[in-house]
Known about the structure:
Blueprint lengths: L1 H51 L3 H12 L4 E8 L4 E6 L21 E4 L3 E10 L2 E11 L1 H27 L1 H25 L13 H41 L10 H18 L3 E9 L1 H8 L1 H18 L5 E6 L2 E6 L5 H16 L3 E2 L2 E2 L3 E9 L6 H17 L5 E3 H4 L3
Parallel strand pairs: 11-12
Antiparallel strand pairs: 1-2, 1-5, 3-4, 4-5, 6-8, 6-11, 7-8, 9-10
Helix pairs in contact: 1-2, 1-3, 1-4, 1-5, 4-5, 7-8, 8-9
Amino acid sequence: MTRLNLQVLAVTMLLTFALIATASLLVAREYQAQSAKHDAQLLANNLAPMLVFEDVSAAQLELTAFARRGGVLEVQVSRLDHSTFAHWLDVGQTDHHLERAPADLAGTSAVVEMHLSSLDVWVPIHLKGELIGSLTVHESLKSLQHTVLRMVGVAAVFIGLAILIAGRLLRWVQKRALAPIVELSRLAENIATSQDFSQRAQIHGADEVGRLSERFNQMLKRVEISQTELNQRLQREQIAGQQFEQLAHQDSLTKLPNRLYFQSALQRHIAHSCQNAVLMALMFIDLDSFKLVNDRHGHDAGDAVLCEVAARMSRVLRSGDVLCRLGGDEFGLILPVVPDEAAAEQLALRLIAAIREPMVLGGHLMPIGATVGLAFCPTDEVEASQLLSAADVAMYAAKRAGKNTFRRANHAASS
């Protein structure tokens, strides 16, 4: 009976140890991956100006400094055409292990690929919301594995000692120690299943089982702290990513969506128009006499005019209409659904009238007007670039007609 109980005890402790060691290894690998991802993103932000200005020497110094963090085997900075801009290879490495960045990297913050003894991180390099290159980091996990192995070895020694002592004193401690061990085993299985590392083992006394429970609780505490830090970092990165995405699609002056957002929105609404056979309208809006305002009153006045124009047009539009600033004094307006062409034409007239209302800024009357080019999908075009080009041609036809008016795309050539 004693031998059987000892075998059960040994199996239970080894199973507990294996579950905790496995969970610790998985958590540690995930923590290492997130840490490498975060550090690579910071490095990418630092490298962006160097990549734009082709400062290879500064970039090489930055890569060398980054490699001092330990475990880095290879780092490479690539341009948009996949040519190498800067590269660092550990002196102990003779072969290149880096692969080309994923094709869809531009739409993500970073990509992490885990291997058995290493990991690869691909990070896009942006500057002011524009993709200018990519960063690839090849990092070793051997240090992490050695740390886990050392922890496993120490834990194995403790387990061996506990089994030896339990075997000699089992007759005396059976009734007192068996119940806490079973409880500890159940707790380990529960933690491995629920991944709730906030649970703790109850310490019944200062004997071997009690010390084992203390070590177990210490290990759980370390894992819980690591998990909490990892979750907090993930939350911060998620918030930062959401803020970055919002800034990347917003015009900093007028707070309207920018050209990048306009292009994706136009593709999306054209697809909806064609699939559901609904009429969609696109307006290309160009301000009249805006250069005159800049020349006479300065760029600050010009910025104020753009903000006021954006506000006036927004008040005229429906909640589902999409108004974007394309750059300079040009705006794009997407009307996802219109009942007929006449409704869009009436809206164009209301926009022109709203902009032409007297605008006094800084005590000066601003001679601002608007010229509008109007095109329809699927009536005129069904491709985004062609529809935008048709609206642009119609806008220039309206300019030739005397400005402060609008023209239809299919009438632009003859106007």
